[in-house]
């Protein structure tokens, strides 16, 4: 029988602590190398061997070499207004130089991969941001909303939560304006938990512009993030974050200053809540392990590698489930609209999968050539209908975005409201509020009446015959009247018309002529 040794127990505790610290450090490293959002904009693409490309490489290399020392740097390379590059990098104020360097290294490489030929781009990582443009934006504040992410989890007592978030962000906005680092962090109590807030601006703008930018960003909270567990709203020059889970950031974990949100801040008042109050994360004491202990640690760490892999995968999936994510084509188009509401319409795939029980056949309401419609229920118990487009429906990303934008901006009492969308690769979905009362058929024109199915199909078939590309294949007016009035007449069998596949038909130069005009005259038949 094994006896318990206090010394061995202490050693095992030390080993477990080392393993947990190692896993936490590994997970923290991972958040440096995955971008959260990218924004690529251009009017003209630059060539790989152009002067602009060379200047961009120099500018990004300058950021890699100089940002970590202070957490911020901006530079302009080139003299020509067409080929010059202005670039900027910003790290979270509490980051150590080493962590800032890691994040900026990833971001300066990632922005080239994310936006390979754009003359204006910006990428946000969890702990840093990199931006470049052909235009010189130094000392110029830009308050246009560029990024909106939020956790889909709802908070208890959302009205009180929203009120506290508003006051917290207002306090932090004023504090950042007078901070040398143009940043501020704090927490406020919310029931038995805390709400953590962080704001920052690029350090090239003045304090007044910083506060104004942050307050403008905060105006978007009711539209996108009301009652949400966490939110992140950013413009090109400032960013606000709030969260009830502080685990991702040391400045939230290390007991940041607390703000009383029972009263609103006076205009211009700024609590002292800058990064200097909490400083760098404290370093623990250092000790040594003997050879035997070292061997045990190595063996245990090696055995934990599969667990770490599972933890990493869970972490990435958890991050995806907590925020709204979409392909950059969809999100970028949303950001270019003037409506804040449009930007918050993008759903996470995991949310729709959970709502529809992985698109269970039991939840299928119907379908057609476009795809299928499924019944679902969100975590908030709101019932929805998810239109999942078929992969071969021939609807591309451009057409999908046009449909989403149109439906969002259409308002009518007989239209079921569009709640959101999702798009990635060939997976494209639209989400509407499920109509609970009444019947959709009641919205059909009451003068249409009811007709036998065979009569409807006969009219459709005659209509298709009249749409033939070749005039010789179309029925005459007399034949059409006979087919419509005499059901004993057998209709010709239809076949796929040539013009349906015209987009895929090969075309040769001989098919066209220069400086010519074709005039079509209607002739009676």
Automatic annotation (TrEMBL):
Keywords: ATP-binding, Kinase, Membrane, Nucleotide-binding, Receptor, Repeat, Serine/threonine-protein kinase, Signal, Transferase, Transmembrane, Transmembrane helix. SUPFAM superfamilies: Protein kinase-like (PK-like). Gene3D superfamilies: Gnk2 domain, C-X8-C-X2-C motif, Phosphorylase Kinase, domain 1. Pfam families: PK_Tyr_Ser-Thr, Stress-antifung. It comes from the Eukaryota. GO terms for molecular function: ATP binding; protein serine/threonine kinase activity; protein tyrosine kinase activity. ATP binds at residue 388. SMART domains: TyrKc (SM00219). The chain crosses the membrane at residues 296-314. Residues 359-525 form the Protein kinase domain. InterPro entries: CR_Ser/Thr_kinase, GNK2, GNK2_sf, Kinase-like_dom_sf, Prot_kinase_dom, Protein_kinase_ATP_BS, Ser-Thr/Tyr_kinase_cat_dom, Tyr_kinase_cat_dom. Residues 34-137, 143-247 form the Gnk2-homologous domain. This is Cysteine-rich RLK (RECEPTOR-like protein kinase) 37. It comes from Actinidia rufa.
